[in-house]
Design goal:
Number of domains: 1
Distance between the termini: 33 Å
Strand content: 15-25%
Largest sheet: 9 strands, antiparallel
Order of helices and strands: EHEEEEHHHHHHEEHHHEHHEEEEEEH
Number of helices: 13
Low-confidence stretches: none
Mean pLDDT: 97
Shape: globular
Oligomer: single chain
Helix content: 25-40%
Length: 388
């Protein structure tokens, strides 16, 4: 059964539309959306498939999706804007803004260490429950009290979920409001887009239902089989927080299918948006969108300086990612449009980024979560061909 695709494709971008259609091959249960903007104008705006496999409801133009770690890119935009305004310094100690953080040998942890996954707090030292991670103060206090897992700044390891609380608390202390509130005030409301870090309960009915695809399930099973009893698997703990989240981040009713997680603020993994909104946000980092330019060129120059790449602290096979000040950069692990592109991908196949060479804002979101996923990459390859 082929998916019904709706939306528009501008002349010259037909290959991108065709690549989006091919992404549904072998995914009868999938829903997805794609948005591409060039020079502040939409050139691709497509959606199709199934919003909720339990009911068969189709994916609509206004369907919302959990975008997982694409949220880290949005949080990086918030931090960069505070730097642009002279209110935050990437090179200052975190404790300058969050005094309680200077515990357990963390007084030399810098803001850029947090944003570049080098703070040594990639996972909690103690098990957290779902109820605990719904309380901002509980988690930020636990991280402030925790000793780093390695010498801060010495190496990096992906802070899959904890980075949201770490960067988010810095933002909260500086901006004087929660990251979700600041995101709405600085980004979503001025741009008029449907994106949230902390979803209003009244919009829950528009959120897609997430399912685990076969390649992700196979990866989870392989990792579980390789686990050594009695030995802490820190990268796994970075994802599950010791039990608060399932290994695949979702179950049929739990993890990021739980409405409680939708309304809570998870600035590393819990953003909810349309593809159209994400593409507009990323476009606004490199061009003016409706008169709104989120970051200036000088700010981007500093924010995109490489902070982490190469071998991570915890052994993992290549290819490895690269990060600037919270922004995921083009690498063999995540190939964007050009070497100058920046943004962040998310679990299961979500991808959102900006490209200053072609003045592009791009977003692909889907509710069928896969591992080593080629869907967005194939679409990006087609876009590169269209742009010449």
């Amino acid at each position: 059964m082929s998916a019904t695709i709706n939306g528009t494709v501008a002349p010259g971008f037909e290959a991108v539309g065709a690549a989006f259609e091919r992404a549904f091959a072998g995914h009868d249960r999938m829903g997805a959306a794609l948005a591409v903007r060039v020079d502040g104008a939409p050139v691709v705006d497509l959606h199709g498939g199934v919003r909720d496999v339990r009911t068969g409801e189709p994916w609509a133009a206004d369907t919302l999706n959990v975008v997982f770690s694409c949220t880290k890119g949005l949080t990086a935009v918030l931090a960069a804007r505070l730097v642009q305004e002279g209110r935050l310094d990437y090179h200052a100690p975190v404790s300058d803004y969050w005094p309680e953080f200077a515990q357990a040998g963390k007084h030399k942890v810098l803001v850029r260490h947090v944003l570049g996954h080098r703070s040594g707090l990639s996972a909690p030292a103690r098990d957290l429950t779902t109820d605990e991670i719904l309380d901002w103060g509980t988690v930020t206090s636990a991280l402030a009290e925790q000793a780093p897992l390695w010498a801060p700044g010495y190496a990096y390891a992906y802070h899959a979920i904890t980075q949201g609380w770490l960067a988010g608390e810095i933002i909260r202390r500086v901006a004087g409001m929660s990251p979700g509130q600041y995101f709405a005030e600085l980004v979503a409301d001025p741009l008029g887009v449907e994106a949230w870090i902390g979803l209003p309960e009244a919009l829950e009915h528009r959120v897609s239902h997430l399912t685990v695809g076969p390649t992700l399930q196979a990866l989870i099973d392989t990792q579980a089989a390789a686990r050594v009893p009695g030995v802490i698997d820190w990268p796994d703990r970075a994802m599950t927080l010791g039990g608060a989240l399932p290994p695949a981040l979702v179950t049929d009713e739990g993890g990021f299918n739980d409405p409680r997680l939708h309304t809570a603020e998870f600035p590393a993994a819990g953003g909810i948006a349309t593809a159209r909104a994400l593409a507009t946000i990323w476009s606004a980092t490199v061009v003016a969108e409706g008169g709104v330019r989120l970051l200036d060129d000088g700010t981007l120059d500093e924010a995109l300086r490489v902070q982490s790449d190469g071998h991570p602290f915890f052994t993992a096979p290549p290819p490895w990612p690269r990060w600037g000040m919270g922004f995921q950069l083009d690498s063999a692990a995540r190939r964007y449009l050009t070497a100058a592109s920046f943004g962040h991908d998310g679990a299961g196949g979500q991808v959102a980024f900006a490209d200053p060479v072609h003045d592009v804002g791009f977003a692909f979101v889907t509710n069928v979560l896969e591992a080593d996923d080629p869907r967005a990459t194939s679409i990006i390859d087609a876009l590169r061909g269209c742009l010449g």
